[in-house]
Amino acid sequence: MVRAMHPDVEKLVESGRIPAAVGERLSQLAPGSFCLHKSWGSGKVASWDLLAGKVTIDFEKEPGRVMGLKLALEKTETIASDDFRAEKIDKSKELKKLAKEKPQEVVIQVLLSHGGSMKPDQIDRLLCGSVVPEEDYKKWWDKAKKALRETRKVVVPSKRNEPLVLRDTDLTPLEILLQDFEEARDLRVKASVLEELRKDAKVLKDDEPARKRILDGTEESARKGMKLHLGAVLDLLAGRDELFEGLKGVELPDSALRILDVLAAGSPLQLSTELAGLSAVRQRRIFDSFPEAYGDVWVTNILKVFDRVGTRGVAEIAKLFADRDESETLLAHIRKALSRHALGPDALAWICRERKKMSKDAFGHEVGSALLSVIEQDTTDEGPRRSLRLQNLLMEDRTLIPDLLDGVDTNEVRNFARKLLSSPAFPELDRKSLMARVIKSHPETQELVTGETNEQKESLVVSWESLEKRKLEYEDLVNNRIPQNVKDIAVARSYGDLRENFEYKASKQQQVVLNKFRIDMEKELTIAQGTDFSGADISGVNIGTVVVLVTADGSEETYTVLGAWDSVPEEKIVSYLSDIGQALIGEKPGATVEIKDLETEKMQVVTIKSISAWKK
């Protein structure tokens, strides 16, 4: 930018007091010029005193700032008067008014001033707090983006880390959209452009060349993407169909690729994962094509998709069955799947939400059991939580548990309560909250929590030594073996195709075993009672006694009966829970009992000769 030297500076140059180069740079800070400071933003030079070597600049963040001329030359950068940063100072009121009335025009001015491309955070720094009040900025920015998209003059990305780009074209809005459609490589982007084109349906109706470009582009992209991007292809075709339905009187050519053609060429199981991300409207349009695509087996095929297609898909399939008077077919499928615990979280959530309406005849205590099983299994699986919404539904819907247990047999209620109490899937507070709902609807389950029952409380008698050993084993399991298994699964998953991945299958099987160990050990440690076996009652065989037995041939054998985890078979130390222990417990000297020989495993009849305390 070449600017004439200021007259006052020119005199200094002519008198030889400053070099010409310094004079030219100094002239850029003449009163009325604009500059930029790293910390204080853009500013307008208010006045200067060349003899005193000072300049006064009205910066955005520091109005009336007095700087030494030398420092000002070093720390500021000159900007042109038509630069947006300069206009923020010189035309502040006009810009603020424009931002209120036409937010998109302000953004376009910013882009024009910065080469036609800027990221959103860069635009934020220019406008937020200066042109648009900070407290209003987020709402203003959303409004500006919407208006920018409608102008078609700016490419507005969906991600904040991508720049807004000013289009350098004189094309009509329709031509811009057609260009975007043809240039898009992502099928989802093409489908979104078709959504925009629907707004220009009146123009398209009278523009056959434009319609042909859309048809040709859709057909080419769909046929190329059918194998690798089935869901996106169906989404694109559904968008095309919706567009042409809006063109009253304009029909699709008979040769056009249809949704039913794509369905017939693909696998229903493949569809389940491909369709999960589509909107409910698009899914329903695709599901409506199943009868024509699959003929007599459409029900079988759509039931393969049911429960694997996400929350929206489950609901839309259910509506389709209802609209075609086939609800009982769907309910029969649900009841059969429930008996096999074959339903996933999305279907179970739908059944729970629709329990007063569409799923009424399939809703019962089996749903509750399946629900707990799915949530528990999901917590042990490595990977993203699929049942989180289901778990939240169970917590938030306060009438769900009472409805699940309404009119249910007492034994089934107890089974549900026991399963809930033993489930590791819920935090302690959540488990207590859910159990409170069970107790409120069925007070007889209170004893499962308080232990107030006529039955003897379950317990395990163990030695202190074996108890400490079991605690160490539990800590190793939880802190080392299970975390290592999770890592092994992740590594095995990275090897590729899970159907032929032996390492993955083996690691997943090991996961089931380890988690069962954990649950069993937690239960046993909860009820274990340590003892040193002193004071054992020797009037009969009891825990902590030594028993001398006489066999049929007159020989003697000595057995020691100790705690649940204290067996040493080679030393004839047996647990009171073992077969031999159970046969001997309670018997007195002189009694004849039948036990299994530890070496030969043959049954033999023995007589108790004497009983003494193991710990003297």
List the helices and strands and how they pair.
Layout: H1 7-14, H2 20-27, E1 34-37, E2 41-49, E3 54-59, E4 65-68, H3 69-75, E5 76-79, H4 84-90, H5 92-101, H6 103-113, E6 117-118, H7 120-127, H8 137-151, E7 154-155, E8 164-166, H9 173-183, H10 187-197, H11 201-205, H12 208-225, H13 230-245, H14 259-265, H15 268-275, H16 280-287, H17 290-294, H18 298-305, H19 310-323, H20 327-339, H21 345-353, H22 365-380, H23 388-396, H24 400-404, H25 410-422, H26 428-441, H27 446-450, E9 460-463, H28 464-493, H29 502-527, E10 528-531, E11 545-550, E12 556-562, E13 573-575, H30 579-584, E14 592-596, E15 603-613
Parallel strand pairs: 9-10, 12-13
Antiparallel strand pairs: 1-2, 1-5, 2-3, 3-4, 6-8, 7-8, 11-12, 11-15, 14-15
Helix pairs in contact: 1-2, 5-6, 6-8, 9-10, 9-12, 10-13, 12-13, 13-15, 13-16, 15-18, 16-19, 19-20, 19-21, 21-22, 22-25, 25-26, 28-29
Structural commentary:
The chain is α+β, with helices and mostly antiparallel strands. Among the domains are: 7-86, SH3 type barrels (Roll), CATH 2.30.30.30; 91-166; 326-454, no CATH class; 460-531, Orthogonal Bundle (Helix Hairpins), CATH 1.10.287; 545-613, Transcription elongation factor, GreA/GreB, C-terminal domain (Chitinase A, domain 3, Roll), CATH 3.10.50.30. It is 54% helix and 12% strand. The strands form four sheets. It has a five-stranded antiparallel sheet with strand order 4-3-2-1-5, with helices on both faces. The model is unreliable at 452-457 (pLDDT under 50).
